[in-house]
Recover the amino acids of this structure.
C-alpha cells in the first residue's frame, strides 16, 4: 500500500544497528513488521534515495513459512499441503461428527466451538512440543471424559491429515526442526516478543545463525489512570480526547486499545464519528483505522447474496423476503409497485414466518394489480428453482459454479454504484469462493444445505474491514498493539477481571499438563505475567498512557485492574449522554397542537369503493378514527405470524358447517326426530363439506392434520350445540346466509344474515353465530360495539335477535326480543337493557337502534374521525402508532 | 451498643463447622459472609477452593470488593474502627499470611477469589467440560429466549399427525385447546421458560412412560403427605370420628369402614366423606347435622349422636386452620384414568420430554442457549449420583467450602448444584475430622420474594433441616437489626408476627416470623405512620397528601434518602404523575415501560417503515408523526393516489415526489420534505452503520424536536443504542427483536441522583432509606384470572422432590383435580409471599415508615359517622397486616369537591417549522457502477504464479535443460496443490504450467536466452523498494540481467496470457504492452540506478513464446 511518508512511524534508534548489520528482524505480528518497514522506507525517502533493498523485517509466521518453502524446494521437508485455518476447522468438525456417529453416547450443542477448542488444543500441544505418543502424556488424557474424547478425535484427525497430505502450520514448523541447517543462515533479532512458545523458539534457534532478543523501545511512560461512571461515558471521553488531539495536531499518532474489542468497537466507532463530525455526508472519511471489522457474512452485500442462495432451497423467512425485496444488490425494478405490496400483504395474511418457496413463487408470479401481473422476484425464484440445486450433491468447487449461476439470475450485486467498502466486500466474496472451492479434497461432495451453511461459515471466517488510508489514529486490541509506538495510548476497559483476564484453560488438555507447560491462558499467574508484560510494552512505546475503567458495567460495580494499583485514579464525573446536537435541535423547535377530528365527507364517487357491511358501523362505534383509517384510507395492520388455523378461518369453517347442517335438518322437528347415530352422520357430513370448502392454500399452510383435528373438534362441538337447539320450542330455519342490504341515511350496507328462524307463531328470530364470548351490552348504548344484530333488528318483521354462541362448554343463545320461551333470549326488555337504555319495549328499542345506527352512519359519512375508542377497542386494533392514542398523556405540551 | 446475638456471630466464624444462618433484614449478614470467607481462605491450599455463590452479579461484585478491601486494608495496616472491624482484620491478616506463604497474591489478583453468581459459575463449568456438559464449547446464553422456545414448539408441532407415540398426546392437547395452535404454543413456551423446575422429572432424559410414572408418584406422595398431616391433626379424635362416621354412613346407606382412613390415596373417598361430614359447602364447620348428613332425628341415641357431633365440632373448631385443612380434601387430586382432567395431565407429562428435546435442536441450530440450559448442562456435567464427575481434575482444584448467600431465593437448579458439588462430603468429613469441608448458607425466609422467578423458599427450609449429603449445618439465627431505629423494629415485630404463619412448612413454603432486636435506640416519633383514605377521590387525595408529605421530607436535612416503594407501577403512577407535574426531582427505577415513550414510538415507526414497504400502518404513522402531522383531509387525498388504494405503495409515492392534486399547501410541503428524507435513506441504505442510518434519517426529519419533554431524548438514545447492539450482534434491523428488547426495558429515570427514589419493592431489596413510603396498599395485583396452566415444585417434609403441573381442565372450583389443587396452593403461596414483600418493604426504613391505603366501602356514610370500610382484598399487600393497620391508622376525611373530568385532548401534535432537507446526490451523476469483475479465475492466476516459480527455478540452473526436469515438474504440482488446487483442476493447471515452461525452454531465440545462467547481474523475482516522488512502492521484477553480448540491462516481465481466438497476435501484443507499460516504466526506473548499462524492457509471453520489447522505454 502506498504510504504517506511525512509522518514518523517508529523510533528505529534501537533497531538500526541490527538493520544496518543486515540482521533479520523478526516480529510477533505483521502490523509491527509493517510499521518498522514503513519507518525505514520513510527514512530512505528522506535521505533522497530512489531504490533500495527491502528492509529485512518480517513477521515470525511469514518467516517460518518462507523457510519451510525453501526447505521444500531443497527437498529437506516432505511436500505437504498447508492446511488453512478454515480447512483445519472444517476438518475438525468433520472428525467430531464422525466420532459422534461412531460413539453415539454423546451429543454436542456446539460442534463448531468444539472444533475451535480442539484446534486450539492441538496447536497448544504442538507448540509446547508435547509428544502425544508418549505414554506419560496419553495416560493423563485418559483420566476424564473430555480429554479422552479429545484424544480419540485427535487420532482420527491425524489419520485424516496423513491421508490427505495436509499439514497445519505447527506441523510444518515441527518438520523444519528436522531439516539441515542452511549454510547461509542469518543472524535473527526477535523484536518485542513477550512470549514465544517452545516450538517457535526451537525453530528460530535452529534456523538462525544467532538469535538475539530486543525491545524496540525502553521508555516508561507516565500512566494517567481514570475511572468513569459506565462504559458509554468512558467511550465518550475517549472519542472527545481523540478528536481534540487530532484537531490540535492532525499528524498526531494515537493508539486506542480496547480490552473488550468485541463489545466496545461499534459504540466507539459511532462516538468517534460523532466527535469527528463524520456521521453525515462525509461518512467515509473518518481518519481512524480500526484493526477489526465485521465478519463478511454481515456485510449487507454479502448478507443479501446469501439470501439469494437461500432462495434456491425450499423455504425463506419473511425477513429474508423483505430483505430481498428491499435489497440494493438485486435487480429490483418493480419493488416499488403496488404488486409488491399486494404480495407482501398476502404473505402476512398467510401468517407463516417460514414461507414455502413453491407458494412464494406462485404468488409472486401471479400477483396482479390492475392490468399488471407478476413480479421480477417471481421470475428470479422460478429461474433459481430450475437450477434444481435443492437435490444435488457436488463438490464445493462445483457449488461455486452453481452459486454463481444463481447470483447471476438475481443480477447480484445489482446495478450499482457500490461504494468502496462494498466493492472490497464483493472482491472478498470471490476470495471466499476460492477458499470454499479449496475444500474439495477435505469434504468431498456435499448437498445444498450443507454447501450454503459451509459458505456462510467461510464468510464468517473472513473479516471485512474498510481499507482506510494509513492514519495516525488507530483502534486496536491489546495484543495487536504489542511493540507499536504512539504519541499517546488510551487503554480502555481496564476492569479488574479483564486485565489481567480470567484464566481460560483449554478444556481438552489436562489441567496439570497445561500448568506444567505454561500453556496460554492456563493460569492466573500466566495471565498476570502476560498482562503486565504487555502493559510494560505499551508504556515503553508511548509518551503518555491513559488507562481507564468503568465503575459500573450494566449496573454492576466494577473494580479497577490490579495493574493500576500504584497509580492514583482520577474519578471523572458524569457527562450527559444526550448529544448536544439533539439538544440544540430540541431547543430550537416549537410544537403546536392542531385539532383535527374531522376528515372530508364521503363523496358519492367514494361510496362505491367503500366495502363492508355492518363492519363500517362497528368500527365507527368502536373508534371513529379506526373507521376512517380502515374504510377510507385502507390502512389495515398486518397479521402476526401464527401456526394452525386463524380465528377467522375457524369461524368461517364453523359457519359453513352450520350452514350445511341446517340445510339438511331444516327445522326443529326433524332435528328431534333424529336418532343419535343419524345425527352424528349428518354432522359428519356437514363438517366434511365445510372442511372441503377450505381453500387449497389454507390447507397447504396449516396442513391436513390440523384440518383433521378441526373436524374432530367441530364434530363434538356441534353435538354440544345441537343440544341447545334441541331444547328450543319448535322452529323452522327459513333463511341461511341470506344477503340483505340496508340503507341508513345515505349509507348503503350489504350484509349476510347467518340464519333466520321462523317460530311457531310465525315471528322471526335472527341468529348470528359466534365462536367467541359475546355480551348483550355490545348491542346497547349510543355506540354499540357490535351493531350487526341491531342492524338486522331494523329489518321488517323481526321479533328477536340472538347470538348463537357456539363454543365448547359454553354453548348458548344470547339475545333479545319480543318472543317468549327461548332460553337465553330475554323478552323482558326494560330489565335486559336497564343500564344502557330507557327503552320500555321492543319497538322502542328498535327505534333507539334506528337512531343510534343512523347517527353513526351519518358520522362516518361526514368524516368524523376522532381518536375516541371504546374501552376495549384498542386491544385488537393495531393502529396505535398511527392514531397515537397511547401518547396523549405523554405529549401534553 | 450491645449486640444481642454476638455469640451466634462468633460461632458462625468457626471454620470447621457448617452453618445455616438466618439473617433478617438489617442484620449485617454481608459482613458475616466476608468474615467467614476470609477465615476459610486461611484454611485452604488454593483460594479457589472457597466458593461463594451470590444471587446477583451486583452482590458478587460487592462481596469481591469488600473482601479485597479487607485484604488490602490488612496489607496496608490501615487503622480499624470498632470491634467487628477488628474481627475482620484478624481474619484478613490470617488470610493474607496464607496468601503470602503460597504466593496467591490474593490482595491484587481478584480473579482468584471464587465469588460467583450461579450463572457465571455454571457457565464456567460448562466451558471447562465441553463434552460432559454437551455444550461442545462456549455457548452464548441469551436473556430472552422466547423466540427460541417458539421455534422449539414449532418443531414439536411438526410431529403432529406423525406416527410417533407422542403425536396422540399432542393431538389430545390441541383438541383440549380447541385446536387453537397458537394458544397451546403460548402455553408450551411458558413451560419451556420454567424448564429448570421440571427438567429433572420430565426432561429430555425421560421417556414418556417415565415422565408419567414420575408424576403419579409425586401426586401420590402429595396426597399421602397431606392426609398424613391431617391425620396428625385429627389424631386425638380418631375414634370419635370413626364412630360418628360409621353411624352416619350407616344411615346414609353407604359402606361402613372398618377403621379410620389411612394416609394414603386409596382411602381418598373416605377422607372426603369425613370432610363432608364436618364441613358445610362454604368450608366452615357444621353447626348442626340432620338426616341428610346421616343423623336422623328421633331416638335418644340419635339425640346423643347429634350432641356428640356438636361437641366434637366445638373442640375441633378450636384448632386454628383445621377447617381449611379439611376443606382442602375436596380438591385433592384424583388419579382416575377415566377422568379427562387426569388424562390431560398425563398428555402434558408425556409431551414435555419431547418438547425439551426439540429445544435442544433449536439451540444447536441457532448456536445459543438460554440461562436455564447453562445451569442444566452444568448439572449434567457434574454427573448423576451414581457416576459423579471428578470435578477436582477438571477444575484443577477441589471445592472445599461453599458459601451461599440469599438462599431463600434459591431455585431448584441452585439447590441441585450445591447438592452435586457436595457429594461425598459427609464421608470425607467423617474421615477427616480435622479438615472438614463446610457449607455456609445465609438466608432469610422472611425475605423470600422471588416466587415468580422460580425461587422456592421451601428449599431453604429443607437445606436448613437436612443439609447436603450428610453435612448438616447448625442453624443459627441472627436477631440484631443494625439498620432501623427502635420504634420501627418494634412496630415490625408487633405487626408481622401475627401476619406470618405460626410455623415453618417446607412443602407449603411457609415461613414463620422471628422478632428482631434493634441495635439503634429509639429515633424520631412516631416512626411509623399509617394512613387510610376513602371515598370517591381517595386515590387523588392519597397522592396529593403523599406528595405534600414528600415536599416536607425533601426539605428535611435529617432525611438523606427517601424512597417511595410499590409492588407495581400501577400502584405508584398517581404519585409519579403528580411529582412530574410539580417538577419535583426524583429518580425512578424501572417505572415507565420504555415502549410507551413517544421517542420509541417515532423511531420504531421509522424502522418498521424502512423494513417493510407493506407495513401501511407504519407508513401512515410516519405521516401522522409530529414531523409531518398530515391532517385527515390530506391523508384522504394521499390515500387515493393509487391504482388500487388497498395496495398503495406509500414509499414509492413519497420518494417519487409525484404527489396527488388536492393536497393543502402545508401538507404538500411536508410530504415533499418527508419524501426527500426517505430518498436520502434509500440512497444510504446499507451504506452507513445501522444506527447512523436511522439516526440521521430521524434527524433529517426533525425527530429531536418532536418531543414535549426532554427526557424522551434519552429514550431515543436508548433506542439507537439498541440498534447498534443489533448490528454488533449481527441481527440487523429486526422489528420483532427490537420490540422484544424494548418490552423488557423501562424509560430513563428522570434525575438519576435525586434524593427521592421511586422503585418497586422487589428492586428495593438489600437497600435502605431514611424514610420509606409505601402507598396504595389496598390495591390488588390482578384479577383472579384463570391461568390455563399451573405448576409447582413439590418438596415433601420427608425429603422427596417432584414437579406438578396441570392445564386448566375447566372443572368447577370444588371438584377434585390437580388443577384445582395447584390453584389453591398457588393462592396460598402468593398470599404468603405478599406478606413477605410488605415485610421487605417495611424493613428498608431507617428512621421513618409511612404506609397508606385507599379503602373501599363507606358509601352512604354520614359526614360525622365512622365509615364502614371493607377489609382489603386477599391479594393486596395490606391484607396480612390489616388488623394492625385498621387499629392504628389515621383515617383522612374524604374530599368532597367535584372531580375534574379527564379530557382526552386528541389533538394532533405538529412540529412547527420543517428542518432543512438532506442533500441528495443528483440522479445524473454517475461514477460508473463500481462493481468488481467476478474473480473466479483462480486457476489461471495460480498457473501464472507457478509458471513464474518454475521459470525462476530454471533460471537458477547452471545448465539449462531442454526438457523440464522431473523435480521441477513435481515441484510445480506441489505448488499448485499448495495453492488450493486439487483433482481435475490440478491436472489441468499442471499441464498448463508444463506447457508454458516447455515452450519457453523450446524457444531457442528468446526463452532459452532469458533463462540462461550466463548473464551478468542476473536475478529472478528481484524484490526492491522504490521511491516514486515521495511515495514508496514495493516491486518484484520477474527477471533482470545484463546481457554480456549487447551490454544491455534487461527487465523482463512474464505473462501467461494468450490472445483470444479471434484476436491477432499483433493486436494482442499491442494491447498488452499498453496495459503494462506503466508497470515496466517503474521497473526500469528502479534498475537504472544499478549500473550504467542501457536498459531494455520487455514482456515475455510464455503461452506463445514471444518476447515483446517496449522500445519506448529504452534508455
Ligand atoms: S388503537 Fe384504539 S384509538 Fe387507535 S385507532 Fe385503534 S381503536 Fe382507535
Amino acid at each position: 500500500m502506498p504510504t504517506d511518508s511525512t509522518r514518523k512511524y517508529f523510533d528505529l534508534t534501537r533497531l538500526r544497528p541490527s538493520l544496518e548489520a543486515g540482521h533479520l528482524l523478526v516480529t510477533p505480528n505483521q502490523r509491527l513488521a509493517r510499521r518498522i518497514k514503513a519507518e525505514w522506507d520513510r527514512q530512505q525517502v528522506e535521505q533522497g534515495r530512489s531504490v533500495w533493498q527491502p528492509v529485512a523485517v518480517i513477521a515470525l509466521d511469514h518467516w517460518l513459512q518462507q523457510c519451510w518453502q525453501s526447505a521444500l524446494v531443497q527437498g529437506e521437508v516432505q511436500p505437504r499441503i498447508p492446511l488453512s485455518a478454515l480447512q483445519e476447522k472444517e476438518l475438525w468438525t468433520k472428525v467430531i461428527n464422525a466420532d459422534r456417529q461412531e460413539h453415539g453416547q454423546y451429543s454436542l450443542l456446539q460442534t463448531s466451538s468444539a472444533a475451535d477448542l480442539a484446534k486450539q488444543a492441538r496447536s497448544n500441544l504442538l507448540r509446547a512440543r508435547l509428544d502425544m505418543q508418549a505414554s506419560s502424556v496419553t495416560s493423563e488424557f485418559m483420566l476424564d471424559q473430555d480429554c479422552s474424547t479429545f484424544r480419540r478425535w485427535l487420532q482420527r484427525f491425524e489419520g485424516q491429515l496423513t491421508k490427505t497430505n495436509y499439514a497445519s502450520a505447527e506441523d510444518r514448523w515441527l518438520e523444519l526442526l528436522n531439516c539441515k541447517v542452511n549454510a547461509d543462515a542469518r543472524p535473527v533479532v526477535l523484536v518485542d516478543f513477550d512470549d514465544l512458545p517452545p516450538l517457535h523458539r526451537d525453530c528460530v534457534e535452529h534456523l538462525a545463525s544467532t538469535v538475539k532478543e530486543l525491545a524496540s523501545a525502553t521508555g516508561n511512560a507516565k500512566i494517567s489512570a481514570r475511572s468513569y461512571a459506565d462504559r458509554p461515558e468512558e467511550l465518550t471521553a475517549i472519542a472527545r480526547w481523540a478528536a481534540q488531539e487530532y484537531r490540535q495536531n492532525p499528524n498526531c499518532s494515537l493508539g486506542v486499545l480496547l480490552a473488550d474489542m468485541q463489545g466496545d468497537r461499534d459504540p466507539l466507532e459511532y462516538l468517534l464519528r460523532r466527535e469527528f463530525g463524520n456521521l453525515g455526508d462525509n461518512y467515509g472519511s473518518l481518519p481512524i483505522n480500526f484493526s477489526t471489522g465485521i465478519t463478511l457474512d454481515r456485510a449487507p452485500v454479502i448478507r443479501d447474496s446469501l439470501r439469494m442462495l437461500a432462495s434456491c432451497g425450499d423455504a425463506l423467512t419473511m425477513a429474508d423476503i423483505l430483505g430481498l425485496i428491499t435489497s440494493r444488490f438485486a435487480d429490483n425494478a418493480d419493488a416499488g409497485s403496488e404488486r409488491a405490496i399486494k404480495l407482501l400483504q398476502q404473505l402476512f395474511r398467510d401468517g407463516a414466518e417460514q414461507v414455502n418457496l413453491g407458494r412464494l413463487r406462485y404468488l409472486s408470479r401471479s400477483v396482479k394489480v390492475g392490468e399488471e401481473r407478476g413480479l421480477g422476484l417471481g421470475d428470479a425464484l422460478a429461474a433459481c428453482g430450475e437450477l434444481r440445486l435443492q437435490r444435488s450433491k457436488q463438490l464445493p468447487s462445483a457449488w461455486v459454479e452453481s452459486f454463481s449461476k444463481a447470483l447471476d439470475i438475481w443480477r447480484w450485486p445489482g446495478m450499482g454504484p457500490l461504494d468502496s467498502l462494498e466493492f472490497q466486500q464483493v472482491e472478498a466474496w470471490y476470495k471466499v469462493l476460492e477458499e470454499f472451492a479449496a475444500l474439495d479434497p477435505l469434504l468431498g461432495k456435499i448437498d445444498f444445505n450443507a454447501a450454503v451453511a459451509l459458505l456462510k461459515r467461510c464468510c464468517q471466517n473472513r473479516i471485512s474491514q474498510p481499507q482506510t488510508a494509513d492514519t495516525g489514529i488507530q483502534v486496536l486490541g491489546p495484543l495487536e498493539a504489542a511493540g507499536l509506538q504512539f504519541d499517546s495510548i488510551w487503554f480502555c476497559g481496564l476492569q479488574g477481571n479483564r486485565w489481567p483476564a480470567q484464566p481460560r484453560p483449554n478444556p481438552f488438555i489436562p489441567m496439570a499438563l497445561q500448568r506444567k507447560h505454561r500453556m496460554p491462558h492456563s493460569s492466573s499467574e500466566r495471565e498476570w505475567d502476560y498482562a503486565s508484560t504487555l502493559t510494560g510494552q505499551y508504556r515503553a512505546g508511548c509518551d503518555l498512557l491513559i488507562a481507564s475503567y468503568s465503575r459500573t458495567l450494566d449496573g454492576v460495580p466494577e473494580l479497577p485492574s490490579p495493574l493500576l494499583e500504584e497509580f492514583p485514579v482520577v474519578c471523572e464525573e458524569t457527562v450527559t449522554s444526550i448529544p448536544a446536537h439533539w439538544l440544540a435541535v430540541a431547543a430550537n423547535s416549537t410544537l403546536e397542537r392542531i385539532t383535527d377530528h374531522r376528515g372530508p365527507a364521503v363523496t358519492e364517487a367514494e361510496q362505491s369503493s367503500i366495502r363492508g357491511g355492518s363492519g363500517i358501523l362497528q368500527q365507527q362505534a368502536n373508534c371513529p378514527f379506526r373507521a376512517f383509517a380502515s374504510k377510507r384510507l385502507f390502512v389495515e395492520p398486518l397479521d402476526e405470524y401464527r401456526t394452525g388455523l386463524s380465528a377467522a378461518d375457524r369461524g368461517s369453517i364453523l359457519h359453513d358447517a352450520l350452514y350445511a347442517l341446517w340445510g339438511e335438518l331444516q327445522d326443529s322437528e326433524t332435528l328431534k326426530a333424529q336418532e343419535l347415530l343419524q345425527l352424528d352422520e349428518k354432522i359428519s357430513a356437514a363438517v366434511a363439506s365445510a372442511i372441503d370448502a377450505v381453500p387449497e392454500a389454507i390447507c397447504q399452510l396449516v396442513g391436513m392434520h390440523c384440518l383433521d383435528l378441526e373436524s374432530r373438534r367441530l364434530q363434538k362441538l356441534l353435538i354440544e350445540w345441537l343440544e341447545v337447539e334441541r331444547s328450543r320450542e319448535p322452529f323452522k330455519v327459513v333463511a341461511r346466509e341470506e344477503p340483505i342490504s340496508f340503507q341508513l341515511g345515505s349509507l348503503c350496507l350489504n350484509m349476510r344474515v347467518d340464519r333466520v328462524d321462523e317460530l311457531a307463531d310465525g315471528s322471526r328470530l335472527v341468529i348470528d353465530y359466534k365462536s367467541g364470548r359475546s355480551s348483550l351490552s355490545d348491542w346497547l348504548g349510543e355506540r354499540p360495539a357490535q351493531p350487526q344484530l341491531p342492524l338486522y333488528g331494523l329489518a321488517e318483521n323481526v321479533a328477536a335477535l340472538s347470538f348463537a354462541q357456539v363454543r365448547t362448554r359454553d354453548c348458548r343463545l344470547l339475545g333479545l326480543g319480543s318472543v317468549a320461551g327461548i332460553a337465553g333470549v330475554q323478552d323482558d326488555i326494560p330489565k335486559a337493557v336497564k343500564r344502557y337504555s330507557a327503552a320500555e319495549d321492543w319497538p322502542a328499542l328498535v327505534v333507539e337502534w334506528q337512531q343510534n345506527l343512523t347517527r353513526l352512519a351519518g358520522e362516518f359519512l361526514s368524516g368524523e374521525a376522532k381518536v375516541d375508542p371504546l374501552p376495549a377497542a384498542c386491544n385488537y386494533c393495531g393502529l396505535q402508532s398511527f392514531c397515537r392514542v397511547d401518547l396523549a398523556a405523554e405529549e401534553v405540551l | 451498643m450491645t449486640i444481642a446475638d454476638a455469640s451466634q456471630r462468633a460461632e458462625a466464624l468457626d471454620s470447621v463447622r457448617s452453618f445455616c444462618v438466618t439473617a433478617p433484614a438489617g442484620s449485617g449478614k454481608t459482613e458475616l459472609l466476608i468474615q467467614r470467607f476470609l477465615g476459610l481462605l486461611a484454611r485452604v491450599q488454593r483460594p479457589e477452593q472457597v466458593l461463594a455463590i451470590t444471587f446477583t452479579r451486583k452482590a458478587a461484585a460487592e462481596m469481591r470488593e469488600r473482601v479485597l478491601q479487607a485484604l488490602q486494608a490488612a496489607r496496608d495496616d490501615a487503622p480499624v474502627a470498632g470491634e467487628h472491624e477488628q474481627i475482620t482484620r484478624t481474619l484478613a491478616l490470617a488470610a493474607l499470611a496464607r496468601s503470602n506463604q503460597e504466593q496467591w497474591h490474593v490482595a491484587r489478583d481478584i480473579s482468584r477469589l471464587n465469588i460467583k453468581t450461579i450463572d457465571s459459575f455454571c457457565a464456567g463449568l460448562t466451558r471447562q467440560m465441553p463434552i460432559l456438559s454437551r455444550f461442545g464449547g462456549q455457548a452464548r446464553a441469551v436473556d430472552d429466549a422466547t423466540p427460541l422456545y417458539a421455534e422449539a414448539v414449532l418443531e414439536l408441532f411438526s410431529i403432529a399427525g406423525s406416527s410417533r407415540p407422542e403425536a396422540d398426546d399432542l393431538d389430545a392437547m390441541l383438541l383440549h385447546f380447541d385446536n387453537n395452535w397458537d394458544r397451546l404454543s403460548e402455553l408450551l413456551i411458558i413451560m419451556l421458560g420454567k424448564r429448570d423446575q421440571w427438567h429433572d422429572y420430565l426432561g429430555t432424559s425421560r421417556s414418556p412412560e417415565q415422565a408419567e410414572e414420575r408424576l403419579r408418584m409425586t401426586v401420590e406422595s402429595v396426597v399421602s403427605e397431606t392426609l398424613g398431616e391431617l391425620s396428625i391433626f385429627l389424631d386425638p379424635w380418631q375414634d370419635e370420628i370413626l364412630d360418628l362416621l360409621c353411624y352416619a354412613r350407616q344411615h346414609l346407606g353407604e359402606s361402613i369402614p372398618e377403621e379410620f382412613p389411612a394416609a394414603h390415596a386409596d382411602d381418598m373417598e373416605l377422607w372426603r366423606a369425613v370432610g363432608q361430614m364436618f364441613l358445610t359447602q362454604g368450608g366452615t364447620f357444621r353447626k348442626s347435622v340432620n338426616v341428610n348428613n346421616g343423623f336422623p332425628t328421633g331416638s335418644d341415641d340419635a339425640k346423643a349422636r347429634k350432641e356428640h357431633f356438636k361437641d366434637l365440632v366445638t373442640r375441633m373448631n378450636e384448632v386454628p386452620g383445621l377447617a381449611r385443612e379439611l376443606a382442602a380434601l375436596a380438591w385433592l387430586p384424583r388419579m382416575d384414568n377415566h377422568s379427562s382432567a387426569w388424562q390431560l395431565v398425563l398428555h402434558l407429562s408425556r409431551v414435555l420430554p419431547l418438547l425439551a428435546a426439540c429445544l435442544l435442536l433449536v439451540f444447536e441450530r441457532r448456536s445459543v442457549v438460554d440461562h436455564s440450559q447453562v445451569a442444566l448442562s452444568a448439572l449434567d456435567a457434574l454427573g448423576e449420583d451414581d457416576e459423579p464427575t471428578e470435578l477436582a481434575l477438571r477444575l484443577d482444584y477441589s471445592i472445599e467450602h461453599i458459601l451461599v448467600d440469599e438462599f431463600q431465593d434459591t431455585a431448584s437448579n441452585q439447590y441441585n448444584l450445591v447438592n452435586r458439588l457436595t457429594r461425598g462430603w459427609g464421608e470425607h468429613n467423617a474421615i477427616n475430622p480435622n479438615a472438614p469441608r463446610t457449607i455456609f448458607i445465609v438466608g432469610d425466609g422472611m425475605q423470600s420474594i422471588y416466587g415468580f422467578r422460580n425461587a422456592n423458599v421451601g428449599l431453604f427450609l429443607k437445606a436448613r433441616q437436612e443439609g447436603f449429603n450428610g453435612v448438616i449445618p447448625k442453624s443459627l439465627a441472627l436477631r440484631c437489626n443494625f439498620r432501623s431505629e427502635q420504634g420501627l423494629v418494634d412496630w415490625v415485630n408487633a405487626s408481622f408476627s401475627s401476619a406470618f404463619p405460626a410455623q415453618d412448612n417446607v412443602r407449603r413454603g411457609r415461613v414463620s416470623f422471628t422478632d428482631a432486636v434493634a441495635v439503634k435506640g429509639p429515633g424520631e416519633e412516631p416512626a411509623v405512620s399509617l394512613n387510610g383514605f376513602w371515598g370517591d377521590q381517595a386515590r387523588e387525595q392519597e397522592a396529593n397528601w403523599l406528595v405534600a408529605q414528600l415536599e416536607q421530607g425533601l426539605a428535611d436535612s435529617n432525611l438523606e434518602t427517601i424512597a417511595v416503594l410499590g409492588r407495581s407501577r400501577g400502584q405508584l403512577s398517581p404519585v409519579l404523575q403528580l411529582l412530574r407535574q410539580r417538577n419535583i426531582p426524583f429518580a425512578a427505577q424501572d417505572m415507565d415501560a420504555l415502549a410507551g415513550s413517544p421517542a420509541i414510538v417515532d423511531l420504531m415507526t421509522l424502522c418498521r417503515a424502512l423494513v417493510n414497504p407493506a407495513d401501511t400502518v407504519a407508513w401512515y404513522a410516519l405521516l401522522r408523526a409530529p414531523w409531518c402531522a398530515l391532517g385527515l383531509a390530506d391523508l384522504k387525498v394521499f390515500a387515493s393516489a393509487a391504482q388500487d388504494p388497498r395496495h398503495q405503495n406509500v414509499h414509492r409515492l413519497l420518494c417519487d415526489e409525484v404527489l396527488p392534486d388536492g393536497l393543502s399547501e402545508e401538507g404538500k410541503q411536508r410530504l415533499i420534505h418527508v419524501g426527500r428524507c426517505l430518498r436520502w435513506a434509500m440512497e444510504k441504505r446499507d451504506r452507513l452503520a445501522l444506527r447512523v442510518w436511522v439516526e440521521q434519517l430521524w434527524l433529517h426529519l426533525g425527530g429531536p424536536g418532536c418531543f414535549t419533554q426532554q427526557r424522551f431524548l434519552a429514550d431515543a438514545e436508548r433506542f439507537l443504542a439498541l440498534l447498534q447492539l443489533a448490528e454488533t450482534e449481527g441481527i440487523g434491523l429486526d422489528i420483532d427483536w427490537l420490540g422484544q428488547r424494548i418490552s423488557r426495558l423501562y424509560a430513563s429515570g428522570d434525575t438519576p441522583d435525586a434524593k427521592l427514589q421511586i422503585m418497586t419493592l422487589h428492586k428495593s431489596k438489600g437497600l435502605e432509606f431514611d424514610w420509606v413510603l409505601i402507598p396504595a396498599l389496598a390495591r390488588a395485583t390482578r384479577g383472579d384470572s384463570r391461568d390455563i396452566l399451573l405448576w409447582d415444585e413439590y418438596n415433601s417434609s420427608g425429603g422427596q422432590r417432584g414437579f406438578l403441573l396441570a392445564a386448566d381442565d375447566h372443572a368447577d372450583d370444588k371438584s377434585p383435580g390437580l388443577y384445582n389443587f395447584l390453584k389453591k396452593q398457588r393462592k396460598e403461596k402468593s398470599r404468603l409471599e405478599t406478606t413477605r414483600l410488605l415485610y421487605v418493604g417495611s424493613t428498608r426504613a431507617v428512621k421513618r415508615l409511612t404506609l397508606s391505603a385507599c379503602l373501599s366501602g363507606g358509601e352512604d356514610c354520614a359526614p360525622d359517622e365512622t365509615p364502614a370500610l371493607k377489609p382489603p382484598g386477599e391479594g393486596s399487600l395490606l391484607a396480612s397486616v390489616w388488623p394492625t393497620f385498621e387499629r392504628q391508622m389515621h383515617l383522612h376525611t374524604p374530599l368532597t369537591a367535584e372531580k375534574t373530568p379527564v379530557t382526552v385532548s386528541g389533538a394532533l401534535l405538529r412540529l412547527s417549522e420543517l428542518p432543512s432537507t438532506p442533500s441528495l446526490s443528483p440522479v445524473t451523476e454517475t461514477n460508473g457502477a463500481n462493481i468488481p469483475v467476478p474473480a473466479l479465475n483462480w486457476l489461471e492466476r495460480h498457473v501464472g504464479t507457478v509458471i513464474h516459480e518454475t521459470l525462476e527455478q530454471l533460471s537458477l540452473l547452471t545448465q539449462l535443460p531442454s526438457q523440464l526436469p522431473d523435480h521441477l515438474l513435481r515441484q510445480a504440482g506441489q505448488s499448485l496443490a499448495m495453492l488450493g488446487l486439487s483433482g481435475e483442476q490440478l491436472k489441468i493447471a499442471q499441464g498448463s504450467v508444463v506447457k508454458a515452461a516447455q515452450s519457453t525452454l523450446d524457444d531457442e531465440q528468446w526463452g532459452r536466452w532469458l533463462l540462461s545462467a550466463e548473464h551478468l547481474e542476473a536475478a529472478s523475482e528481484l524484490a526492491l523498494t522504490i521511491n516514486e516522488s515521495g511515495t514508496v512502492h514495493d516491486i518484484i521484477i520477474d527477471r533482470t540481467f545484463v546481457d554480456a553480448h549487447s551490454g544491455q540491462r534487461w527487465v523482463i516481465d512474464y505473462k501467461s496470457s494468450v490472445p483470444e481466438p479471434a484476436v491477432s497476435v499483433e493486436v494482442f501484443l499491442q494491447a498488452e504492452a499498453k496495459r503494462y507499460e506503466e508497470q515496466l516504466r517503474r521497473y526500469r526506473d528502479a534498475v537504472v540506478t544499478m549500473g550504467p548499462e542501457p536498459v531494455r524492457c520487455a514482456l515475455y509471453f510464455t503461452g506463445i513464446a514471444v518476447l515483446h520489447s517496449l522500445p519506448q522505454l529504452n534508455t
